[in-house]
Amino acid sequence: MTLKRDNKKLASTEFDLVVIGGGIFGACAAWDATLRGLKVALIEKFDFASGVSANSFKIVHGGMRYLQHADIKRLRSSCHERSAFLRIAPHLVQPLPIIVPTYGHGKSGKAFLATGLYLYDILTLDRNKKIADPARHIPWARLLSRQEVLKEYPQLDPDGLTGGVVFCDGRMYNPTRLVLAFIQSAASLGACVANYVEAIDFINEGERITGVQAHDHHANRSLTIRARTVLNACGPWADHLLKTKFNIEKQGTYSRDACFVIKRRFNSDCTLAIQGRTKDPDALLSRQARHLFLSPWRNYTLVGVWHVVTNKHPEKVTVSADDLKGFIEEINWAYPELKLKLSDVLMWNAGLVPFGENEPGAENLSYGKRSHIIDHQKTDNLQGLVTLIGVRYTMGRGDSAKAIDLVQQKLGQAVKRAPTDYQALHGGHFDNFDDVVRQIERQFIPRMDKEVCQALAHNYGAGYGTVLALTQEHPGLCATIEGTTVLKAEVINAIRNEMALRLADIVFRRTDLATGEHPGIDAIQQCADLAAAELAWTDDQCKAELQSTLQNFPDLQD
To answer: pLDDT for 345-368, tens place per residue?
Structure first.
């Protein structure tokens, strides 16, 4: 599967639908619409999955927290989406066990949690439907003894600990490559996709939207893209686009959701849930406080998530050293034996997501409940325009399907859902992940370290052949970038087959080079040299790309 920019097609075709936004919601919408037989274009102002989707906590939620709200519909919906990701992207989403320690009795005790988990399991009995590999099934929740919990996390405070419960959600290996898999799948069926193409304005004929005026920042040219319908799916940017053209006010409040990465990797493969300092005011049945999570991921641990309501533009969202100190202080308060310091933090991630309505200065915040799907014909008398602002990564596939239902209605078509919850994405056509790893070990010559083979299997799944072909054509590309598991061939593949145009695209979103930490200047320089030769950059262009990429790493200085 090769992604190719085609501005001629973008400018000369009247599409059924143009999707604005190349994050998880826009990518899922393009795939869904293409499967339904629509003629689709997708454009993204920056690179695919470079905004909120790149900053996910990497957990695919199964809806457990909605049990506290007695919201069975949302619980079932979230569980269905977790199962869908496990089915259609087996290389990028795996089961993730989560331990919740129990203390004393009452709402923090084992009996209370066990009752809730048992009810949850009953309500989600179909959670493993058509997931071929039993190793990828979501098992029944189970109780843990005090000794079993301390074996997993021996530094937990044992005072009052009665044991724990363990249940499973899903874990993403790489959120940006999961978005890319949706885009590759859509392109394979004819969708016209392009990164670095910004929607500048809507085209309207009276009260009907008939496309977008766009600017291709890569080619530095303007484009007129005609379409019978437009889906505005650029996340927190969606409001700003509507405000600029139509003076439509914001569709709600946003939270800066933030987490961070530490180098420590605990012996346990289970995520640990610990109680923070704030409560959920919407929960009918709630423990003493909301949970924070220490989640194993690759050779790191993810720590989060923190929320703060903000009015900042999405491109101005950041996490300061003082913010990180506050996060660390709360984690150390909840889990004193961690003794985390600012110097332990390798990377932070943050993005804006829709949030609940809260009083100014409220400590216990009301979370966002649902994605916003807006029919602008009803709200603003604008025909042919739909806005989708997604509430969380997990709901990308399901909520985009609802938006495409609305698009089909506007096109005068009978609504017919595509099987996006069962049809494997690009790279996902296999049953057993370990079999893919073994195939890579056998086929790549010279033989590679198992860690490299596993990373290839995760990132490309059954589509690893594009990387293999490059190593066979140029044996020198079989070497890894210094100090990493990333093959030089992956850099070339990102450019030739995955529409990587900038060095940052390769470093942060197509490969594992900097998804967890700064890989070192030598590694980035090697990547830059490969990209410069492939893309015919001048020395000045290469230096500019290198400098721009280095500036993208978060400032973690006190």
So the answer is: 999 999 999 876 545 455 544 555
Token representation of residue 97: 């066990």
Q: In this structure, are residues 131 and 87 in contact, taking their beta carbons and an 8 Å threshold?
A: yes
Fold of the 7-52+176-251+370-410 domain: FAD/NAD(P)-binding domain (3.50.50)
The answer to whether 222 touches 43, Cβ cutoff 8 Å, is no
- DSSP H helical ranges for 258-395: 321-334, 376-380
Rg (CA), the chain: 23
Per domain, the residue ranges of the chain are 7-52+176-251+370-410, 58-173+253-355, 433-551
Q: CATH top-level class for 433-551?
A: mainly alpha
DSSP 159-209: TTEEEEEEEEEEEES-HHHHHHHHHHHHHHTT-EEESSEEEEEEEEETTEE
User: Looking at residue 69, what is its pLDDT?
Assistant: 79
| b (16+ CB within 10 A) / e for 398-435 | bbbbbbbbbbbebeeeeeeebebbeebbbbbebeebee
Q: Are strands 291-297 and 385-389 parallel, antiparallel or unpaired?
A: unpaired
Kindly report the CATH number that applies to the domain delimited by 58-173+253-355. 3.30.9.10
User: What does 353-370 look like in DSSP terms, one character per residue?
Assistant: EEE----TT-SSPPPP-S
Helix, strand or coil, per DSSP, at residue 371: coil
d(CA 143, CA 100): 10
Two tokens, residue 33: 């619409």
DSSP letter at 480 equals B
For residue 231 the two structure tokens come to: 């889906």
Tell me the two tokens of residue 120: 């949850």
Task: Count the alpha carbons within 13 Å of 478 in the hemisphere toward its beta carbon.
Answer: 17
Torsion angles phi and psi, residue 341, rounded to 5: -130, 160
Amino acid in the structure at residue 147? Q
Among residues 116, 97, 102, which one has the least CA distance to residue 150?
A: 102
Cβ atoms of 51 and 74 within 8 Å: the answer is no
Q: Which two structure tokens, joined as six digits, stand for 56? A: 């996910």
Residues 85, 354, 558: CA angle, nearest 5 degrees: 95
Quickly count helices (H) and strands (E) in the chain: 17, 17
User: What percentage of the chain has pLDDT greater than the value 70?
Assistant: 95
CA atoms within 13 A on the CB side of 308: 14
124-141: pLDDT as tens digits: 999 999 998 999 999 999
The CA-to-CA distance between both ends of the chain, in Å, stands at 44
pTM: 0.95
DSSP letter, residue 490 = H
Distance CA 74, CA 242 (A): 28
* 519 phi/psi in degrees, rounded to 5: -80, -5
